[in-house]
Amino acid sequence: MAIQFKYEITKEISEKALEAIELARKSGKLKKGTNEVTKAIERSVAKLVVVAQDTQPEEVIMHLPALCEEKNVPCIGVTAKLELGAAAGLSVPCSGVVITEEGEAKDLIKEIATKTTGSKVEEKE
Predict the structure, then answer these.
(1) Is 60 among the domain residues?
(2) Quick check: is 64 in a domain?
């Protein structure tokens, strides 16, 4: 059973999400790991959530898409933990990453949010 998203995750969206993580790593702020991602969403500081679809057991990250939908945060799936960890600047695989401060990735995050939700994301100050 795979993690359910409300929209189709295309290779293009996944690549843009990884690019946004790399940009935010250099100019903004990231949090890594499922617990940190969950806390950021609950505290309403999450701008973009990216989860690895090859996470085992999948129950570890299964709650994230629903939580993101509830808090109106874009949630993107990528195929591999290894590439998610690498984009976040880690030498180990990572199940989830959240961007809390966009930095130079702001426009890219808006584009991803528009493609996944079909609407503009409201600015959170």
Answers:
(1) yes
(2) yes
- Give whole-number Cα distances, 28 to 11, 21, 24, 53, 115, in Å: 24, 9, 4, 24, 22
Q: Per the structure, how many domains does the chain have? A: 1
From CA 46, how far away is CA 70, in angstroms rounded?
12
Domain hosting residue 104, numbered range: 11-117
* DSSP-derived 3-state class of residue 53: coil
Strand partners, 75: 49
Contacts of 14 by beta carbon, 8 Å cutoff, 6+ apart: 76, 77, 78, 79
- pTM reported for the whole predicted model: 0.85
| Beta-carbon count within 10 A of 13 CB | 19
Mean pLDDT of 80-109: 93
